[in-house]
Write a structure and sequence with these properties.
50% helix; mainly alpha; 101 residues
Length: 101
Amino acid sequence: MITINRNDPCWCGSGQKYKKCHYEFDRKLAAYRLRGCKIPSRNLIKTPYQMEKIRESAKINVAVLDYVAEHIKAGVPTEEIDRWVYEETTRRHGIPAPPEF
């Protein structure tokens, strides 16, 4: 494991000094590790850019689900629902999952 000095740039890429960014977080994780707890790797921690993209994706997902909820009724074929989801997702500049055929 690489040791980071408090005044070095933070490992997360935020541009902040380590002491102002993840220092306290890492100290807490180290304390849990000493207690025998399993600690996930740092790659689970998202950057601010990744968090913003996750938020954008969630907004699109909610909007698509709201659209479907407004239009769905008994007897609507699954293929039509799939088409709605695809069209609404792309209309909102999202990238839909590939259709399963």
